[in-house]
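Tip: read the tokens left to right.
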């Protein structure tokens, strides 16, 4: 797991910056009803997406929450007075507080299936009846675009995909949430290059494959033999799912 306090200052630039944030926010907003008056962005990170959610819906009170102080500090600068430190497994809000809850690029980071279930449970708990939970799913799979880089990386070990769409949908159903839509958006500026992928391997970016693993250098050598070392391959395309909390009849 990355140290997000140390990563905070460079986080946005290394992940597509404002272009990717705009694409993500547009996809999320397309799944949130216009009448939503309170929105919670769980694991808001630097607030780069959260700020766009707030700007696009001036009638919606947007709150950001993140566990990493470094991330929350940057988000607070973007949304003064609207960001707090919080563990997404134990949100510090009463039940039925928000009309919408979002979690962008969170569930794939969680190592334990029980913690993924806890996050979805908390997001469901703080939703009002009629409210919508919107989350990214299948993050790792999105990066496999069928390029020559992906062919080289195929033998690497992978983490279990706890954010698989079917898994997340099952957790949502366990807490009374119903499917309410889906969307995709491009990870602009995130297409891999062979040279950049080699650097990521050697600095431990692929978290299951340690830099000192012999397979790391074997993959690096194969990547170095690919043509067009600095040409980005296609951008990933990320998936978003929405789930609605039924109203009591």
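Filled-in amino acids:
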């Amino acid at each position: 797991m990355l140290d997000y306090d140390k990563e905070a200052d460079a986080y946005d630039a290394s992940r597509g910056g404002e272009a990717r944030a705009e694409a993500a926010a547009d996809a999320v907003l397309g799944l949130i009803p216009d009448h939503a008056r309170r929105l919670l962005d769980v694991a808001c990170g630097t607030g780069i997406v959260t700020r766009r959610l707030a700007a696009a819906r001036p009638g919606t009170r947007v709150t950001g929450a993140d566990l990493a102080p470094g991330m929350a500090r940057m988000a607070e600068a973007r949304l003064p007075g609207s960001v707090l430190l919080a563990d997404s497994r134990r949100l510090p809000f009463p039940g039925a507080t928000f009309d919408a809850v979002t979690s962008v690029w969170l569930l794939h980071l969680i190592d334990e299936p029980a913690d993924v279930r806890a996050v979805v449970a908390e997001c469901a708990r703080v939703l009002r009846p009629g409210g919508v939970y919107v989350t990214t799913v299948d993050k790792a799979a999105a990066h496999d675009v069928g390029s020559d880089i992906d062919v080289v990386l195929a033998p690497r070990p992978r983490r279990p995909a706890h954010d698989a769409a079917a898994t997340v949908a099952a957790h949502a159903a366990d807490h009374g949430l119903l499917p309410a839509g889906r969307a995709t958006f491009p990870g602009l500026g995130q297409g891999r290059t062979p040279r950049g992928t080699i650097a990521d391997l050697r600095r431990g970016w692929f978290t299951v494959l340690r830099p000192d693993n012999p397979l790391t250098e074997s993959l690096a050598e194969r990547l170095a033999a690919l043509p067009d070392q600095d040409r980005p391959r296609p951008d990933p395309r990320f998936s978003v799912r929405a789930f609605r909390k039924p109203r009591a009849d």
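The chain has one domain: 4-144+160-191+235-244. Strands lie at 38-42, 61-66, 83-85, 98-103, 127-137, 178-186, 237-244.
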